[in-house]
Design a protein that fits this description.
Distance between the termini: 47 Å
Largest sheet: 8 strands, mixed
Oligomer: single chain
Number of strands: 8
Length: about 220
């Protein structure tokens, strides 16, 4: 079933996304992705989570700083394109708009969540993978005290992603020695329209070189 599904439909992973996927597929359990705007971080996370859910039959949550943001970033765009692909391949699924979840035929589930109600995330044991997005907007304690313990039962992997906001959570994880880290700029998305990219770069440069280095180059800036 998995082999015939293109989880990146209607396109394919670009070459730098594939580098991250190769690390996860090779068994690297903890992966950190630091990338500039429009690199396609979220599309990578959602596509990988659907693949994991279909492989394991477990829940693979996408977690954003808050539930509204998770819905706005992923539900109508990245989740829907995968549902369109599942429909084309005649793979049944159950879509729950209220829960922001999609259940697959093997019982696996992808669910969108936020850490605005972090206590609701405690004590969960059925996660087969987790994707953490815009991680620098999280409270620092959520990964070690809530998310990490939930991954013990199934030895589930984690993909932590974001564009940095100073020397915060991403910086601490990247320098902690546990995570395999990837760093890409916005220019490392080969599919981004070059004219749009130049406009984006100019807009951030006009805000100041610190903003440009942070948002486009994904560098750590004070």
């Amino acid at each position: 079933m998995i082999g015939r599904v293109n989880f990146f439909a209607p396109t394919s992973p670009h070459r730098n996304q594939q580098l991250v996927l190769d690390a996860l597929d090779s068994g690297t359990r903890w992966v950190l992705l630091r990338a500039g705007r429009k690199w396609r971080k979220t599309s990578l996370i959602i596509s990988w989570l659907f693949e994991r859910a279909l492989e394991t039959g477990l829940t693979a949550p996408y977690i954003a700083p808050n539930r509204t943001q998770a819905k706005n970033i992923a539900w109508d765009d990245h989740v829907q394109r995968i549902l369109d692909e599942l429909t084309r391949e005649q793979i049944p699924f159950k879509k729950n708009e209220q829960e922001l979840s999609v259940e697959l035929p093997n019982g696996g589930k992808v669910q969108l969540m936020g850490v605005d109600n972090k206590e609701a995330l405690r004590g969960i044991s059925n996660w087969g993978a987790v994707g953490l997005d815009e991680y620098d907007d999280w409270a620092e304690d959520i990964w070690p005290t809530i998310i990490r313990p939930n991954l013990i039962v199934h030895k589930a992997p984690a993909l932590v992603s974001g564009t940095p906001k100073g020397f915060r959570n991403l910086y601490r994880l990247e320098n902690g020695g546990l995570f395999k880290s990837f760093h890409f700029t916005s220019m490392d998305n080969p599919e981004l329209d070059r004219e749009e990219l130049e406009d984006l770069k100019t807009e951030y440069q006009e805000m100041g070189m610190g903003a440009y280095r942070q948002e486009i180059l994904a560098e750590y800036e004070k």
